[in-house]
Amino acid sequence: MSIRQHFEREIGKLQADVLLLGSMVEKAILDSVDILQRRDLDAARQLVADDRLINEKRLTIEDNCLALIAMQQPMASDLRTLASILEIATELERMGDYGKGIARITLMLADEPLTHPLHDIDLMSRKACDMLRRALDAFNRRDVQAARTLPAEDDEVDALYVRTQNRLISSIVADPRTIDQAMRLLWVAHNLERAADRVTNICERTVFTITGRMIELDVLDSAQSSPG
User: For the chain, first and last CA: distance in Å?
Assistant: First the structure.
């Protein structure tokens, strides 16, 4: 096997590890909201503990990336790929933290009856994870068009967040005794809104990997949607 073939094989392994890390994060986020709905405290504790696996996977990716850079002489396009893998792994690790944070909120609520519906929060988690799955697929396939258009879907998550925020604030006004639970659920929604934002960062890294240009896709989307 030539040096170049070995290098490409190692990059392929790193990309596979990124996809695996992404699936771990997706599961953590979806499970965290399901656990909140079911009020499963044992599962919440396990999810918090399992976050270390996500952290360890991210560190493994980072170590392997740096080792590959040190041992090889990557071309500019290869360096962009490796830099993007490092950045995406960091984004994924932080998204995993959002799932852990939601599980911790479940533990804070304990067996307190829920006074607020979680329908929109569930929709937010599913939409954010669907976006994440497709963003990582775009990175893996080098699909610049998908990477450029996907961030526009973040508007749907933002709208759900605003609706959740308004409903929770209204409930506090109607009954101030609900403030503690409302604020905790608002933090859940905030975590999910931030998770969707990080998908945009992943898409920006994909565009950078392919084109060598770093573009703020949320700004681009706003400009394209503005009148005139």
Answer: 56
